[in-house]
Amino acid sequence: MHEISFQPDDSLYRDRDTLFEDYTPETIVGRDDELAQYHEALQPAINGEQPSNIFLYGKTGVGKTASTDYLLSRLEKDAEKFDVDLSVVYLNCEGLNKSYQVAIQLVNQFRDEGDKISETGHPRYKIYEFLWDELDTVGGIVLIVLDEVDNIGGDDSILYQIPRARSNDNLQDAKVGIIGISNDLAFRDNLSAKVRSSLTEKSISFPPYDANELRDVLRQRADIAFHDGALADDVLPLCAAYGAQDSGDARKALDLLREAGDIARAESAEQVEESHVNRAREKLEREELMDGIADLAEHQQLTLYALATFEGAGETPVSSQTIYDRYSELSHHVGNDPLTSRRVRDFLKEMADLSLIQSSAQNEGLSGGKYKNHRLQADLRTVLAALSDLLEYVGVHESIRDTVESSDEIMISTESDSSTLL
User: Fold this and answer.
1) What does DSSP assign to residue 226?
2) Which residues have CB under 8 Å from 296's CB, separation 6+?
3) Which end of the chain is more exposed for a tag (fewer CB within 10 A), N or C?
4) Whole-structure pTM over 0.85, yes or no?
């Protein structure tokens, strides 16, 4: 084996890190209307007044968090300039599905390491007392940013308690506003009536980027990230077009541009070209597909495996009932009780929504009735590679044995019990 060494390579990139989502640019492009509304909603804070509650809605990658980081950083600088007592507390609610958990995390944001409270064992009212004490100790204007706030679901009491804290005499020295960021466009509609009444928030909707807006976003980052002449003329328009197809998601467009750059650099190419973008897209789509399959529950994976066995045998499209029969065989093989056929039909619908499979309705009238046929939408080898752990546990069905043995992507231990099943 040749000796391996690492050497710096800046032939294409000037600053690759600026293509990641945690980078906040000097200006935000493509969101002028949203920034104007957001700026107006934040104005009371710089006046030292009770801040507005602000909720941002929009799909992933449409600029909600970037706009928040951009405006709040400027608000903090201006607050210092005009001697306004302002504090910003940021909390990502991913994994927090109860107001109780959110309140505990907020309390611990204010406390030193040795003074944090445990995540269980306290009455709810006591947690809120802790929170009021901490907020009043900070005092002044406090903006609480709750990113991915829709994770709390129906347990939304904290969105009622904080806006009413001053009127209920729980706070004397702090004026608190909530900034909620949600990917769920229907989140507000699902809040309880008393919470909606209490919030009286300013709502700002962030629509998906179109191809022209994405091109502006990519150009802004590319000018910083790459050396002059490092990108062929068609690279940014192509990345923007793909991003527009992916629900107008700027994060995906930036990931695509960065991946294309990485491929070009690995090949010592003089420029990032269209071919690099297309290969990067294939790679990212495959990784996203595999991650989606890996996140499925065991019985969902068994259902997908059942369909894959028919795909491997060239017997698709195949009916829901036929898939259910094979799924039941696989479940019994590993000692599991199969779920109902209705649940498996639900799994198939969910996988069709995720673009893992294609489903089509069939109607054969009185003789055959109505049913659905299914086939894999994704490449069989990719699906089996994502199911490698399940294959190692369940075994390899005879219909896919040749595919498994001929693929370097499907990682199954040679010591595993992967004997032919049926």
Assistant:
1) B
2) 304, 351
3) N
4) no
CA distance 202 to 192: 17
**Taking the domains of the chain in order of start, what are their residue ranges?**
31-205, 210-292, 296-405
207-244 per-position pLDDT tens digit: 999 999 999 999 999 999 999 999 999 999 999 999 99
How far apart (Å, rounded) are the C-alpha atoms in residues 22 and 30? 18
Kindly report, residue by residue over 88-117, the tens digit of the pLDDT.
Answer: 999 999 999 899 999 999 999 999 988 999
Statement: 296-405 belongs to CATH 1.10.10.10? yes
Strand partners, 354: none
Angle of the 64-81 helix axis to the 32-46 helix axis, nearest 10: 30
Q: Are 335 and 341 in contact (CB under 8 A)?
A: no
Instruction: Check residue 48 and give left, alpha or beta (phi > 0: left; psi -120 to 50: alpha).
Output: left
User: For residue 47, what are the CA distances in angstroms to 70, 79, 115, 239?
Assistant: 19, 9, 33, 42
Q: CATH says 210-292 is which class?
A: mainly alpha
Q: Which of 19, 31, 22, 21 is nearest to 67 (CA)?
A: 31
CB atoms within 10 A of CB 310: 22
Residue 337: both structure tokens together: 């009780």
CATH (residue range 31-205): 3.40.50.300
Let me know if 41 is exposed, middle or buried by CB neighbors in 10 A (0-12, 13-18, 19+): buried
Per the CB < 8 A criterion, the answer to whether 108 and 122 are in contact is: no
Hey, CA dihedral for 303, 309, 312, 316, is it positive or negative?
negative
List C-alpha distances in Å: 325 to 97, 302, 336, 378: 36, 12, 14, 22
What whole-number distance in Å separates Cα of residue 308 and Cα of residue 316?
9
